[in-house]
Amino acid sequence: MKWYLGAIALLAAALIFDLGLMAYAMYVLLGVMLVSRRLARTWAESLDAERECNRFSAHVGEMVAVVLRVRNRGGLPVAWVLLEDLLPRGAIGGPAPRLEVVGSRLFLAMLLPGGRKTFFYQVRCRGRGYFQIGPLMLETGDLFGLHRRFRTVTAPHFLLVYPKIVALEGYQIASRRPIGEVRLTYRLYEDPTRIAGVREYQPGDPLNRVHWRATARTGTIHSKVYEPSTVAGATLVVDFHRDGFDPSHEPFRSELAVTAAASVAHALYHLGQQVGLVSNGRDAVDRIRREGWDPDPQNRLVARQAAAMLDSSDRLQPVVVETRRGPDQLIRILETLARLELTDGLSLAQALEETAGRMPRDATVLAIVAKVTLQTALALGELRRRGFAVAVLVNAYHVHEFEAACRPLFAEGLEARHLPDEAAVAAVCEDLYMRGSVYR
To answer: What is the DSSP string of 169-232?
Structure first.
């Protein structure tokens, strides 16, 4: 607009002072600017594009191929167009990028009327997450550089990268193993398929407990005694509150928590046991932009901001995958862990208070925490007092941090194990560290 105002002001001055050459130059300049503006708009509106990805989910280390096809639907040739496929800056930048672009996602092309161009690049997945690929941003303009037009075309694709899984060592059946079938010495539930013995009938025993053979042999009514139920599988509780992680140790500590949870879930699934997930983190799906798109932005920065996923989410609800067996249970947990993000919403104690009623008592509660506050220890201790078998993994790098976390846990009758690095994940079930009051 300032170019038009300047040209009109000079044209008025030339007409007032009868400067014919200057007036002619201003007429030409205004004509060129009007034609260039119209030409740039026509070029931008005549272009469309489509994107193809060879996969929508991948594992760490795998490659994803992206193919872009651009077409000129108009009757005029497009002298130049600059294409950029947008990727989240937080995923491709920083000290620990999760996506690595192989090739270039910036392309410069010239298109004849009805012409088509195909472009290709690849993305290497270096970390788990839920990433938006696209939309494609087009930039074109006139030959003089007076006008530029931006457009965002193609719907975005979303890539899910599963978390890393570490094979667990020493995963044998053991009576005090914190994960798996554990014979309890108290009768939380009784298993009607496993008869432990026979006793005399007591008032209140249901008829289905009567042992008719023993009754007929002794002449006195006898009832069956069943073995206690077993603790099978685990409900994984992952603390993903932002205050629990030191920024200087990020994103290593949070990724270690996800890796440990994914590895335990993988082992339990292949043992045929039930497994579930509870977390106070944020689901990245909640940040998908469903409105507020700007298809015709004024500059490149506005295009990036308008097309990216939302930076925050006001969702205050725990992320829950119900504890059960099933052929798709592992996939659901891995997908949820892949999308999990740090949040400053619910604390772990608040999340446990809301979800405790949905946790089965026949599964161990395996909590993976980075910082143990008094409220966290009280919430886990309350689960133990309500009859849950509780195990704690402290995701801390330094030994003194682990020792500080153990004090409130010991006060609640809980024992914990240190999770210093990824190498310790493999031995998470090798040592029998649940020897305390939770199994008395």
So the answer is: S-----TT-SSS-EE-SS-SSEEEEEEEEEEE--TT--GGGB-HHHHHHHSS-EEEEEEEPEE-
